[in-house]
Amino acid sequence: MSPIGAIKGNWRVLLLGAFLVFAVVALFIPGGIVADDGLASDSVDSGPTNLEFGLGLEGGTRIRVPVAGMTAEDIDTGAVSDDGTVDQERLDGVESTLQSELDLDQADVSVDVQDDGTVTAEVFNDNVSQSEFAAALQTADVDATEDDIRDGVTQSTRDNMIRTIQTKINAAGLSGGTAYESTTVSGDHYIVVEVPNMDADELRTILSERGQVEVVAYYPNENGTQTNETVLRGDDIVDVDPPEQQGEESYAVPVLVSDEAAPGFQQQMNDLGFTSEGIGDCGLRTGDGGVDFDHDGQRYCLLTVVDGEVVDAHSMGNSHGLASSMREGSWENDPTFQMGAPSQQQAQSLSVNLRAGSLRAPLDFSEEQVYSIEPGHADQFKQYSLLIGLLSVLTVSGVVYARYTDTRVALPMIVTAIAEVVILLGFAALIRMPLDLSHVAGFIAVVGTGVDDLVIIADEVMDEGDVSSERVFQSRFRKAFWVIGAAAATTVVALSPLAVLSLGDLRGFAIITILGVFIGVLITRPAYGDILRRLLTDH
Amino acid sequence: MGYFDVPEIDYTRYSNRQLAAVPLAVLAVALLVLSGAFLAYGTPVPLGMDFAGGTELTVQTTTAEGNIGAAFDEQPESVTGTGTENQYIVQFSSTDSQALSDQAEGNLEQDGSAEVVQSVSSTSASFGQNSQQTAMLGLVIAFVGMSAIAFLLFRTFVPSIAIVISAFSDLVIPLAFMRLAGIPLSLGTVAGLLMLIGYSVDSDILLNNHVLRRSGDFYESTHRAMRTGVTMTVTSMVAMLVMGVSAYVFGISLLASIGIILFVGLAADLLNTYMLNLSLLRWYKFEGVRS
């Protein structure tokens, strides 16, 4: 047989071989087929293979949680005119009416123009009822009834929150954490956050902090009584540097104030006396890093407030010429200053909150779904699933051998079924699919369906005695393939809803099984036919 | 050939009615169990945590199994040991997973340096409700899709409907088994049921194909289809049993439930394919075609 003829005659087996080599390279050669993309690099070097493992086999926490709040869509505020210009003052007016009517914080109300030009009002607080919300809208001269209000928040709010959460978990120094949205069949939206190597309590703490940072001026007013006034909000800060240590129990986060907010802030500091009599006059810090408001006389402090809690109190210093540059009015040209925090940890979280921005709406943890597993326990699962997989393959091999007793038939059958799993594993390593328990179930199902189909081929081909000629073999093989194709089609159809619908962890199971069916029908099963033909027609 | 061989059944001894009676009776009993349970409990099968809401903790503790319940403010629904020493799975109907893990950490004896709470999984009732709808929708789509393919493949009513009826029965019998054995419906069992829709029709397709698309005697074709089909189904059943039992021992409930459901479903499939489907096919072949 000429070399070309040999290739032509065995192309199915050669294709299987090529796929196997490809899979083994993807599995075991460090770096795999595609170069590292950096993000996953630290999890790759943890094992002998390039396989990536999901939460269930690696350890970590996943929280699925809806956003608390309700929305009135497409309300008629009269703020958007037909030519698309927006009357921002009117929107702010509606927002502040809602805020005072419903007795909410500024952050819990939002009135915004959406991309399509409609105006949407959102309330991020589950203690407000829909009728109260509607009544407050009426008070703000917006014609809205309870029917116009639905539970949940807008897509842009969710997108914004997912970005914020993603920044927060990345900043917490945890690689591989992700935040994404999932939608149920009935149209409920959930935010899903997955973080490896973190327990549920820690993750819940990160997610339940809104992270609203404010700078509050604490100063004596004309009557001499101490007053609080918010002078900067998180949104006013456009750039944040990593925290610096400034002395014992004193850390600072250098920030850059936006060009829009800087002149106002400077003016307020001058008006309130922070840059004159108030310089260096705070002294509310207690020795252990707390803030004590029990004092005599007049004090001028800039309070760092996170989610309504005072973290630190600082005076306006003049060491870097801050107070004098403010007084002269030149500060607004380079509007940087330092926000204080008493500990490294608080400085770090302040910097994260400033960088990520605040969470637009709180999450409703009473509706949460949590899955959390210790790394050690997950590792146990990994070993057990390997063992269960091996046991299943052994069992199948045993049954197949017991059925045929002919090694020529049974051995290639088992080897082919295993090859199918190896190719699938290689594929999973290639696309960096994080494997979970449900994928393991999928792999075992692939061995099962794979062997079933090989049994069909073997029985069909060996039917009515030995295969005498190439032509007889081909015709029998084609007949067998009709059944295999039909069976594959039903399996794919039965599992495709799972691959598309988001039903817990089962997507992986469905995807692996469907992929396995395709690899089986297109690559491994035809190759098994070829192997069988050679073994049976040669003698 | 082989240590086991598929026995040749002399179908000529039984009438179609006799053959169909057995699987239909089993199906009727299964439907009765499910509808009775629906009337008595509100759901045909017991709903697991994934669908009803609740919390499951895996704890590692030297506290005796009998005293674990006392560590929590709320009495656990169940405490079961896993294959690992001193490791238990504790289930609650409460969804306050934070309080429950705090109580576990506070009141259970630590086993060496291992964390007490090894894993937490909690689902709120409303989320479970959502999952129920999704699962239901998934099952319906899968079943309708499979039926459509059956009709496309054979393009004649009786053989196609035979596949659909036997697949329906393949689903209903394991569901009734779950009710009787007290296995709750979980994501794993739903995956098993979906897999069953795809898996169990293979043998029906094989049988129909041999009988309808091949020349030759009905009984000869049937026997050949059975030899292949029974080998397939038995191989899968054994694999699933091994997976189910070993996963149960190791405490991996997802794999355990998929394994057990497929085992029971495939056993039901043997009955349905070679008695129900076969009797319908024989009727179609010998009487239906002429009429």
TrEMBL record, chain B:
The chain crosses the membrane at residues 21-41, 135-154, 161-181, 187-207, 228-250, 256-276. InterPro entries: SecD/SecF_arch_bac (IPR022813), SecD/SecF_CS (IPR022646), SecD/SecF_export (IPR053476), SecD_SecF_C (IPR048634), SecF_arc (IPR024921). It holds the Pfam family Sec_GG. The keyword Protein transport applies. Residues 115-285 form the Protein export membrane protein SecD/SecF C-terminal domain. Keywords: Cell membrane, Membrane, Protein transport, Translocation, Transmembrane, Transmembrane helix, Transport. It is found in: Cell membrane. One of its GO terms (cellular component) is plasma membrane. The keyword tRNA processing does not apply. One of its GO terms (biological process) is intracellular protein transmembrane transport. It is a multi-pass membrane protein. NCBIfam families: PRK08578.1-3, SecF_Halo. Involved in protein export. Part of the protein translocation apparatus. Forms a complex with SecD. Belongs to the SecD/SecF family. SecF subfamily. This is Protein-export membrane protein SecF. It comes from Natrinema thermotolerans. The gene is secF.
